[in-house]
Amino acid sequence: MKKIIMLLGYVFLAVIVLAIAGAASVAIMGKRLDKESKGYVDAALPAIITEWDISELQKRASPEFDASVDYDDLEDYFESLRELGKLEEYQGSTGDSNITISPGGYEITADYTATADFEKGSVELQVSLIKHNGSWQILDFRVNPEESTERKDVI
């Protein structure tokens, strides 16, 4: 009986050690993914919004994004956003990455929000990323013009 209790104790201890090691690995990987995804967003967004260039968005788009977007409608929307004038300041992004584990595998995504100031107004940008085959791609892209009762020059 004493040997069985000791054996169960060792098994329990091994499970705890493996759980701690797994949690530490995920935390380290998470920090790396956060840094990667933030760098990607902070490079991609200025490239897209400086001229509201749809081709810059398309070359970074995921297959999921391509399947859900009408690029002609998006081009019309970008045309209206060009009325904001030249990009004055991209203020950087905030957000983080996520790892979703399911019976079918895992998925790595990231969600970020950024703000950009233009000559005639500001926009909030929301972008979701997905990592396919080791590369980040845009999963969703949204532009929310600044809401302000004081500024009449914002789209």
Task: Write a structural description.
Strands 1-2-3-4 form a four-stranded antiparallel β-sheet. The chain has helices spanning 2-49, 54-58, 63-68, 71-81; strands at residues 87-102, 105-118, 121-132, 135-145. It has one domain (2-145): Nuclear Transport Factor 2, Chain: A (Roll), CATH 3.10.450.590. Helices cover 45% and strands 34% of the residues. By secondary structure, it is of the alpha+beta class. Residues 148-155 have low confidence and may be disordered.
Helix-strand blueprint:
Blueprint: H1 2-49, H2 54-58, H3 63-68, H4 71-81, E1 87-102, E2 105-118, E3 121-132, E4 135-145
Antiparallel strand pairs: 1-2, 2-3, 3-4
- Top-tier CATH class: Alpha Beta
Give the overall pLDDT as a whole number. 87
Global morphology: elongated
CATH topology: Nuclear Transport Factor 2, Chain: A
Strand content: 25-35%
CATH architecture classification name:
Roll
Distance between the termini: 76 Å
Q: Tell me the domain tally.
A: 1
Provide a count of the helices. Answer: 4
Can you give me a brief rundown of this structure?
The protein is of the alpha+beta class and 155 residues long.
Which properties best describe this structure?
155 residues; alpha+beta; Nuclear Transport Factor 2, Chain: A; 4 helices; elongated
